[in-house]
Amino acid sequence: MAEQTIDVSTRRPMRWEAFLIFMRERGFTYDPNAAGSSVHFYPPNENDRSITFYKPHPDSTLQPVMLKEFAKKLKRYYGWDEEDLFMR
């Protein structure tokens, strides 16, 4: 199966489930039973801090503007480079 990527260049939405796959492929875990729309992701390195994203509702589609914010937050928290992580 091909690795899931986030495409921030074409301004296409992404389903929340695809974002979960994207994070799991990078070694993150999360609690799917957490209350509310906040989802805490725990990085593979226990020394790194966790990151929280909010699942959109009522429709679980991540719109392009939200994906761009997610990408910025991942870069800020973990130093991830968009060139390495997101489709161009």
TrEMBL record:
GO molecular function: mRNA binding
One Pfam family in the UniProt entry: HicA_toxin
Record-linked InterPro entries: HicA_mRNA_interferase (IPR012933)
Protein's name in the database: Type II toxin-antitoxin system HicA family toxin
Species this chain originates from: Galerina marginata (strain CBS 339.88)
